[in-house]
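Exercise 3.2. Students should predict the tertiary structure of the chain below and write it as structure tokens, then compare their answer with the key that follows.

Predict this chain's 3D structure.
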Amino acid sequence: MQARRSAPCTASASLLGDHKDRDYSAKLSRFNAFAEPEIRLLIRNLELKPGMHILDAGCGTGEALSWLSSEVAPSGRVVGIDLAAAHVAAARTHASPTIQVYQADLFDASMEPASFDLVWCVNTINHLAEPVDGVNHLAKLLRRGGRLALGQSSLLPDMYFAWDARLERVTNEAVRSYYRDRYHLEEQDLAPVRAIVGILQRANLRNITARTIVIERLAAMDAATESYLRDAIFRDTWGKHLREYLSDEDYAELSRLCDPQHPQFALRRPDFHFLQSFTLAVAEV
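Answer key:
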């Protein structure tokens, strides 16, 4: 990152209230450990070459930095940026000394235009009030023929309770209601979560492709999957947040399924079957 320091653009204001003091470190780390096999496969399919320069825009806790670096080693360069101070601190613990990690937003003016071969941006662009502006800015950082890879989890509805589609549906509706109320959103404000191909088109990028893979887990599951589902989803995303959005009966049933001490704990059921999609849309400048 070369010295071109100026104030970040105010267009980076987040729909979800993210700011430099926000700390999702535990949840991000759990997701990366859980989804590592599938995300690394998508990275390998990009056919990166040694010597390439890569920016991870919204690097979170930084696990993907080393995955990207391994594809462009030994002469490549990887840079990570994230708005949250806690995420940057965590990313620096994961990054090797050759990987640069900075606290910055996506509109930071300190990066040299046309200096990267790939911008990797996962579960980030949907947080912007104007996602097309974010894509346009990131595209300026790419060399001619460079690629922007936008990753987004859960474009398709996740499946948690294969045996109870109704409870799953009302739980997901309760989550959406909770986030709309918490962040004062309308339904259309959430569109960028699933509109990444259209965002790339509106930014006039070329040769857009998309691939969606399914992350599928069964009982008995590995420790990374159990940690992600139990702590990041069952407890932190659901939990007491959803009490006012569910009937007493549905909340009681959900609570039983989410309680590791209860005999009905979902992750201990022999028929537990979980699906989550992950989509990577790639475009060229």
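Discussion points: Residues 1-13 have pLDDT under 50 and may be disordered. The chain has two domains: 10-155+188-215+277-284, 165-184+216-275.
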